[in-house]
Design goal:
Length: about 220
């Protein structure tokens, strides 16, 4: 299993040390919130301009108009740009997935915790490089994991989606193996990791990377 720590709960006053403590992760997850799609605000691309990330980054756009952020995140070098189908609707999502891919970066689409996975049409499944299955209602870290996410991952695999499936929200050491068995490739981990001391994080990251692979449920590593 790959792991992508969310820096939403990081200490931004000590960002360099925070990033150093998670440098063995597979990616860094950037939660971008606009106060409209979700009631919360986080940080924008301007704040990240001079930040040196130790591994590749992915931008999870919880915003009403993701296209407004595409140029800025391309400039920042993000590898994966993920937006919500609830924000764009289906026709616009199709256009945007094509636009993102044409820029040479991975196109991700997300479904929120309460969204029916059938919002993702066959065309969208064919276009998307990654599906981000939220296992909470998006907007805040530290919420309880929704078990329906496991079923959504299984269901999307049963529909033949062979791209990457990532799960985000309330992931911890009690649900990570089940997610891998269901067919998830990567998990976002926020509070479970970032509320631990910096010294303990590398060990937790390693244990997540190992557990699921040992179960044979990983699709991409
Ligand atoms: C929620 C965000 C998540 C979240 C993860 O809206 O997309 O990435 O911060 O944090 P935990 O793991 O605490 O749910
Ligand atoms: Zn996220």
């Amino acid at each position: 299993m790959k792991i992508s720590p969310s820096i939403l709960d990081a200490d931004f006053g000590n960002l360099e040390a925070e990033l150093d403590s998670i440098k063995t992760a597979d990616r860094i997850h950037l939660d971008i919130m606009d106060g409209q799609y979700v009631p919360n605000l986080s940080f924008g691309p301007a704040m990240l301009k001079n930040v040196k990330f130790p591994v590749e980054t992915e931008a999870h756009l919880m915003v009403l108009n993701p296209a407004n952020f595409l140029d800025d995140f391309v400039k920042l070098g993000v590898k994966t740009f993920t937006f919500h189908i609830e924000a764009t609707g289906i026709p616009r999502a199709v256009e945007l997935l094509k636009e993102i891919k044409s820029r040479g970066i991975f196109a991700g689409i997300s479904i929120d915790g309460y969204t029916d996975p059938d919002w993702l049409t066959d065309e969208i499944l064919e276009l998307a490089d990654q599906i981000l299955v939220m296992s909470v209602k998006s907007g805040f870290g530290g919420q309880k994991f929704m078990n329906s996410a496991v079923l959504k991952v299984e269901y999307l695999r049963s529909r033949g989606f062979s791209g990457e499936i990532e799960v985000d929200g309330g992931v911890n050491d009690e649900n990570v193996a089940e997610l891998a068995e269901a067919g998830a490739d990567i998990v976002v981990v926020g509070s479970f990791l970032m509320k631990k001391s910096r010294e303990k994080r590398a060990e937790i990251i390693k244990s997540f990377q190992e557990v699921a692979c040992a179960k044979g449920g990983c699709w991409s590593c």
